[in-house]
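Exercise 7 asks you to align residues with tokens for two separate proteins.
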Amino acid sequence: MSPVHLFKYREINNWTARIITHNELYFAKPQELNDPWDCASRVSFEGATPAQIRDLVHVAMKEALCNLVLSTAKFEEVVERHYREALTDPDGFLRDAERGLRDSIQVGKGVYCLSEVANEAQMWSYYAKGHSGICIDMSLPEILTSARAVRYMGHLPRFNFFDLPLEQLADKVLFTKHNNWSYEHEWRIIQREFPPGAHHFKYPLVKRVIFGAKTRPPDVKLVLGWLKDARLDVPLYQAELDPCQPVVQIRPI
């Protein structure tokens, strides 16, 4: 079950403006994320049998020929031809399959990252430009139920493609990160209908806005202007830094 609140830390820029004024979210490619191990395919095809290699060829051909209209007999003929070619160098074919899976994830998936907390000092530092941006309490009624919590582990295991159903395998690759990032308390939205790029929604995406402890008055005024342009009357909050420890307090304005 998704938490009641999911937050997006943002610096003050055009992409942030479009969240507020255009109800627009940018789903990033995994290769654009700041963790180079994020969504990096740790999947091996080691030990594949001839029958499993044929299944891989079938899947690859179905994807490659999706825009062509072929009879079942013609399609199976193409699969059989490529299968025989794969068997001439099965190790090479499986290396290519691993690389193809990794590349398809890195450039083909759209990822929208959120946090379940609004008072994490490191998040304010990294994603809100040194506490000078904002944190948006997101309103995502149509897709919030698809948000999934990231699992954090002390090491990133390698999986065998043939040991798990594809859905479970994808889940482990896309929603597992190293413990180094656990402070993010991250949730993700990854859906087929949201490939990489900007996506427009028909409803406001902002539930409330939290200004950073170092958000400059001109930027506060700019954000208030965006809210006015979007005709959004939402609660406003202010982040404050504890003078003695790295703790962020949130109070209503």
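Second protein for Exercise 7:
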Amino acid sequence: MNADIHDVGKRLEAARARLSGLEHSELLLKFLDHLESLGLSKARVLKYANHLSKIFRHVAFDTSAATKHDIERVVAWINRQPYREWTKHSLKMAVRKLIQYVKYGSCDRKTPLPPEVAWIPMRVDERDSRVKP
């Protein structure tokens, strides 16, 4: 028996419904379908869906005509948020994968990164001044 105690399927459908109400929703939903076709788990696709929903609610941009300036604006918004470093890393990774999918039609490991997102720093500084020993 494979019980889904976290109800990922229902949460993924709710995330898809949120994305369908946003600008560029058709492309975002196709991207989620592509992630599922690559074999990512439903939980991982849910993570991407939630991240994209958050990004496109605050700094929507045209992904097909995105320039480096547009991506810089999105990354600047991510960096200004009071999130932990790994959350920021995850949000930036979602942007990178989405633009990679839009520009090249795939976002697997063999697909090169477009120059619009290749510059995004993905290093994580784990030191967090908010954490007490």
